[in-house]
Amino acid sequence: MTIKPGIIKGALWMAPGAAIMLALILVVAHFQKAENTAQQLAFKARRVDLLSRMQLALSSASEAEKSAVLAITDRDSQIFADQARAATAVVEREREELLKADGTKGEKALLAQFSQAFTEFQRVDADLLSLAVKNTNIKAYGLAFGPAANQVGAMNAALSRIVAANADSPEAKRVILLAFDAEIAVLRIQTLLAPHIAEENDRKMYRMEALMAREDDRIRKDLDGLAAHPLVRGDPDLTQAASHYARFTKIRTQILALSRENTNVRSLAISLNEKRKVMLLCQATLDALRQAILDEPIAGVTYGQPARPR
């Protein structure tokens, strides 16, 4: 078979063009691959950055929550509670952004696991912060060691004046016994207030309240006995002692009501138990998700390792 010279000449002319075309295709393919690799790296970096912001916001929310629990004024507790809620809102915003991004099946499962834990985190936080801002135990302590203690001191001072005024009387023994018994009984009530405020168990609170009620009966009988005694009947100090005890009783009722709410004790217990557990679960799940994203293979990217290790 004879090949015409024209055909050979045409083939020789087309060969360089084919080589150039092949080179162009290879260059385009190389840049497309490089562009795709860059996009994959950017996508990975974006998701890791979202996770970092979520973990930072979670830590900030936890610190602010603890500060709200430990703050001693309503204003400070409210400020820290607001900070905690704001940090939690950041976590929710970044979580929603992460949900929009695509990922592997395992990554989606981890994100779903975090979402479930975070829902529990938000529920616990809502209960905890609503308690922390009330500070009922702190307010109860303030009343117990302030106004209540002042009324006990004033009552006992008035009773001591009655004893001193009648100490030389042959009939003073009954007066002294009644006055001292009332003083001791009111001090017993006073000493039960702080343990009641600190107590978490309702049953123990009831027992302390029963003891207080028993001492209250003794005080009222002692004061009635003094009022009926000829040496003390109509004494202004006895009137003052009864008045101070009435005020103390009113303040004590307020203290017990605040103590029963137990918001500081309850919020601290939640913070140390439920909140700590769910916080650790959230952080551990985010750590696992971060590692899963970092472990995603990208063609041509070796992260510092040899492409073909020996």
What can you see in these coordinates?
This protein has helices at 5-70, 74-100, 105-132, 136-165, 172-198, 202-228, 236-261, 263-294. It is mainly α and 310 residues long. α1 (5-70) packs antiparallel against α2 (74-100), α5 (172-198) runs antiparallel to α6 and α6 packs antiparallel against α7. The radius of gyration is 39 Å and the shape is rod-shaped. It starts with a helix and ends in a 16-residue tail after the last helix. 29% of the residues are buried. Residues 22-34 have low confidence and may be disordered.
Chart the SSEs and their pairings.
Elements: H1 5-70, H2 74-100, H3 105-132, H4 136-165, H5 172-198, H6 202-228, H7 236-261, H8 263-294
Q: What does the radius of gyration come to?
A: 39 Å
User: What's the total helix number?
Assistant: 8
Mean pLDDT: 86
> Strand count, sense and closure of the main sheet?
none
Silhouette: rod-shaped
Helix content: over 70%
How many domains? The number is 2
Number of strands: 0
Q: Which CATH class of the largest domain?
A: Mainly Alpha
Strand composition percent: under 5%
Q: Pairing-aware structural class of the strands and helices?
A: mainly alpha
CATH topology of the largest domain: Four Helix Bundle (Hemerythrin (Met), subunit A)
CATH architecture of the largest domain: Up-down Bundle
SSE string: HHHHHHHH
What do we call the CATH homologous superfamily of the largest domain? Alpha-catenin/vinculin-like
What ranges have pLDDT less than 50 throughout 5 or more consecutive residues? Answer: 22-34
Terminal residue distance: 54 Å
